[in-house]
Amino acid sequence: MVRRRFEVNQPIAARTVQVTNRQGVHARAATLIAQVVRQHEAKVSLRKGSERVEGTDVLQIMSLGAGEGDHLLLEAVGRDAETVLDALVALFHGRFGNEDNAPD
Known about the structure:
Structural class: alpha+beta
CATH superfamily: HPr-like
Shape: globular
Number of domains: 1
CATH architecture: 2-Layer Sandwich
Strand content: 15-25%
Radius of gyration: 13 Å
């Protein structure tokens, strides 16, 4: 496990996304989220209501039980905070690359 150190003055960013795919944030989607986060120099958390989980932990992401229509708050701190959130927003908007999730 790679441990990243972040200084107090690191950039902080947040975005809200809506889950629009029918299956919600399932195993494949959670894996894609974690992969994107691991590619950046930022610590990311996902929040649904009062629950907050690490953006690199697939099981924690799945434990949110985020379904279609749910809103998630994505928070990042670190040098790539804005970049990683932009990539995650694109992933959510693209419905995790699943053609079966095309809008009706």
